[in-house]
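Record type: monomer structure entry
Structure origin: computed from sequence
Chain ID: A
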Amino acid sequence: MTVPGRRSSTFIRLLRSGFTDPSAAARLLDADALAAVRADPVLLDALGATADPDLALLGLVRLAEAQPDGELPGLLDTLVSAKPLRDRLLGVLGASEALGDHLARHPRDWLGLITYEAADLHPGLAEFELGLADAHDPVGLRVAYRRCLLSIAARDVCGTIDVAQTAAELADLATATLRAALRIASAAAPEDAALCRLAVIAMGKCGGNELNYVSDVDVIFVGDSVPGADEGKALQAATRLASHLMRICSETTVEGTIWPVDANLRPEGRNGPLVRTLASHLAYYQRWAKTWEFQALLKARAVAGDEALGAEYIAAISPLVWQAAERENFVADVQKMRRRVVDNIPAAQVDRELKLGPGGLRDVEFAVQLLQLVHGRSDATLHSGTTLDALHALAAGGYVGRADAAQLHDAYRFLRAMEHRIQLYRLRRTHLVPEDENDLRRLGRSMGLRTEPVVELNKAWRRHASVVRRLHEKLFYRPLLDAVAQLTPGETRLSPRAAGQRLEALGYADPASALRHLEALASGVTRKAAIQRTLLPVMLGWFADSADPDAGLLNFRKVSDALGKTPWYLRLLRDEGAAAENLARVLSAGRLAPDLLMRAPEAVALLGDPEGLQPRTHEALEQEVLAAVGRAENPEAAVAAARGVRRRELFRTTAADIIGSYGTEDNPAEEDHGALVDRVGGAVSDLTAATVAGALRAAVHSHYGDTLPTRFAVIGVGRFGGHELGYGSDADVLFVHEPREGVDEQEAAKAAQTVIAEMRRLLQLPTTDPPLLIDADLRPEGRSGPLVRTLASYAAYYRRWSLTWESQALLRAEPVAGDADIGAGFIELIDPLRYPMEGLGEDAVREIRRLKARMESERLPRGADPTLHTKLGRGGLSDVEWTVQLIQMRHAWAEPGLRTTRTREALAAAHAAGLIPTEEAQILDEAWVLATRVRNAVMLVRGRAGDTFPTEARELAAVGRYLGYAEGTVGELLDDYRRITRRARAVVDELFYGA
């Protein structure tokens, strides 16, 4: 019976020793098996020093209770008298529940931790082979494997070996296990073993001597016949041996499993033969292999079976690995591989992914392997399959900055140590950081973090992941700057040839020019050059993520030259996290946005303002333009000021569009493409309206002062009136006026025509700005009719002469500038025409259909692919818009929602009114949005308008990137466009033509 107050004292002592459940720990200490040592203070202190004292004590009690008769005193005596054994045994029991289970099942295996000699402290492959030598079946192999694993874990948790040595020992143990498994398989089928030669090639982390506690062991099998044997039969025998080897390691027995043996890295993957001859391997790699396969072969190492055959394989494939960077598709493959693939990671797990998440182990490994492939062809010191050794060699050769390499080295070791400890707990293959507080506490304590293990662990993990994320791109580019800047005498640098090789591998088509730009930007000891050297490693990575890295770098140099003496420019890029990435995206996405920025470089400030990319309202734009026009001394200066506003706002719109379409590291690409299209259309239309209003004010003021003899309004039609202008669209308009009281009608008409002529002259003055063409061809009688009419003249024409197509054109008429009352009067006049009471008659419907069919056959440019023409092609803009407009003219008299100038808004209203089924409405909307985005993309990329996809490869790739298609997938883009518009055309045939 416990003396009153004594339990409290024990409870407090256990709590202070790190036990989270002191009551349960006290009960375990009272177990009969520990009677001889429970009062020994050394034991309690040793338990408190483990990663999880509660787990260690439970494991110790289970081990003690499982001891064979007469052997318990030996365990307990050694435990309290031998510190090395005590630290090893309790350290393992406190870090690994799975190894605690193993010791409870095999209670004499603790004896393997007693010896403390040189070979035991740092065993090699020979010692592990000796440890597995007595295993003659899968069960025995598992027991022996766990016994060896126990010794590795003991050295690991006690700090006898570091994380790199642990990984190397685990790889040696895996090698010994593969050899033992092949020995067992050969003994089971001696006739097969006698018929063939079989070599086992380790790949992945096993091949690289950097294995985890629990990981698939990747292998490739190479077979051959013994002299005099039939090759076909020999390969069949080798395949049976290889399959048996895999089962021996992978299958679950009463002692569990060891690890899966994965042969899917072999030629043709799981679809290819399990065993091939060396000649067959070489034929595949020389003809069919992809870049990632050569990247995987970096770690190939012969580990088991026929040593001579394994050595022949390594000697034969090595030259192919180091020539991979010269392959035709290397750059495109690298572009794809560099882009993070986290789509398959569940969203809830991304932040806990130690291997594949942002700033994870894969980032380091990929960066190192890519640099090895690029530079290893001319530098044999880089030919290592071990990540940390290769990183050290890259730093020693000047291919990676020494400071960067040191930071990456420390981060990688920390992340690998976390991975080891997470897997060691239950010996399960996982790369997820646990969420449970107790698991995090155990993990933190196992990493040596004892004060506040959970807080300290999360802080250290985030810090190291941030280092990896930050350095992942800089690793590629900072040595390029060191090569051109040459600031530190005596330090090893990239040679010009090596720098060119790296730039070429990362997608730069003209490495020599790129290096000249880098030299111009980063050379020297000025503060400006120092900031550029900080910015450029990241900027170069963002440029490389585009379809035209060379243009991005060239444009960055131009902007930097223009703003180099402006104190805020480099400070903005350095200090405002989003500004630099936004600028890189804009400068490398095509010609239009950089051209706009070059004419007004100060607009780069918009990229650092959180609100800088939001479109401005029509009212704010018109107010600014009219104020600028009012301050000008003459009409030319007035329109120049209006154009200046237009230039800046076009840049704002294009930049927002590009950044929204590409996405950034912190903000993914906009998923609602319809919202992007609406934003661009609205912003460009509002900006055009404000510019027209400014030109109108300047024209009136230059000829008539403050008051024009007639009241004058500009009506937007087509895409202008529909708020759907693209970057390259003309402004379709109608002009209307009403003479002021007492003014002669002819005088008023002359004044209106004078103002129109002056507006057009001013807007067409030679300039470097994008042109704004005013097109009035949709007016009554077209080019043969007067440019401007009174309301009464419009009414008389429409009453007597108007054709159905003219009423259809008026569906998108909306006042955009000038006298608001006159504009409203015009809308009141045309509403009965465009929304006819009781809808269109059958004759009118037939006329519209006939006109559309004629337009399809006559207006499509000669030689144009009708499946890819965005405006007049199958399922393109014209198809969708005419279908929607026909519905408006037939039903808007009864459905107020259809009375809108906007295509998507009218389509949604038609669906809401039950006039278009849901699926058909979605198909039409998707096609219209896609065609509109393609037109916008073409203008952004080429700097000039176009209705078809570019034919030049880089331009087409840039259009694809804007639309969300990765490098090398433009074929998918064109296929998707054809598929989407084909479906839309089927809906048009049904709804428009009544097919």
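Annotation 1: The two ends are 95 Å apart (CA to CA).
Annotation 2: The first strand starts at residue 196 and ends at 202.
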